[in-house]
Amino acid sequence: MSTLLTEMPRATAPQETAxxETAxxETAxxETAxxETATERDPRWACVAARDRSVxxxxxxxxxxxGIYCRPSCPSRTANPKNVRFHDSIxxxxxxxxxxxxxCKPNQASTDVRNARTVARxxxxxxxxxxxxxxxxxxxxxxLSTTYFxxxxxxxxxxxxxxxxxxRRADKVRQNLGRSSxxxxxxxxxxxxxxxxxxxxxGEMLGMTPSDYRAxxxxxxxxxxxxxxxxxxxxxxSSEKGVCAILIGDDPENLVHDLQDRFPRAQLIGGDxxxxxxxxxxxxxxxxxxxxxxxxxxxxxxxxxxxxxxxLREIPAGTTVSYAEIxxxxxxxxxxxxxxxxxxANALAxxxxxxxxxxxxxxxxxxxxxxxxKRALIExxxxxx
Length: 385
Prior knowledge:
Blueprint: H1 38-41, H2 43-49, E1 60-63, E2 68-70, E3 84-87, H3 90-95, E4 99-100, H4 111-128, H5 135-142, H6 146-157, H7 161-179, H8 183-189, H9 195-206, H10 210-214, E5 221-229, E6 232-238, E7 243-249, H11 252-262, E8 267-270, H12 273-287, H13 303-312, E9 321-322, H14 323-329, H15 336-344, E10 357-358, H16 371-382
Parallel strand pairs: 2-4, 5-8, 9-10
Antiparallel strand pairs: 1-2, 1-3, 5-6, 6-7
């Protein structure tokens, strides 16, 4: 009998499946632009970041991490804007628990205000003195060194202490000549102890003799003539001292009226043939700037205007400068508007070349004889070579 061997199936060892390694998905970090804070969106923050002195006194800011409040122009390191709060008053800042910065002293008058007050006090001192006080005496009264005081006075007023004293004395002379019974009385009232000194300076201060000024300028003779040039009509007038007016316009009659308004009591005399040569010289310069213009001038204006006009005459033909540059040149960088005013008051067109002064961006600003004439003069001088 045969034995049937039944083979049992062999157990199969479980197969090991290698685990599937899935590479982790790496997500690149997203860079989020820093969110602008409410402080940075406030226009006052730009003033703080720029340390803008012009807005001092209009608001204050505090820094939470230091517990102090400052004026916008504080020279301390710029704070993190997220720690900054703005306040409309010193009281509001202190009510919020902040104390005044010891560096910018926001609870006191600003440096500019203190300087202006100091200079104003010295100006009153000069006005009340019979003789112009020496510079050292004025500096001592201001509590400053002589050098610093001189620089400060010029920066605030646009003129030196001596120029200011001379201008005030000239004002006194003019006022006293109008109300005193005699020239001698006016001389002593104005603080002059010597008639020689008085008469030596009277021409510079008044543009004529004291007697003529007291008579309203009735004896002052001014010669004039009207001509024509490519820019329109031109009037040239001259006193005994030199050319006192060069006026440009469209209507010759209006130019004569302008001259009469400037010298209401002077004797205006029509120029003769020799005088018309002077007009031709000015016209020649306008048409061909390369020939130059060198005339004796009778320049009448305030001490500040005279400083500006002197600076204008130093500008070479073919170049332009800004009002701000002129202000820096005369040592009064903050007097840009006053410089523009002095340019507008200039009555000696082309001889005192206010047309060579432009805005900081190079644009042409106001010109008393018209922007187009200013542009034409600048373009002609640019071609001088």
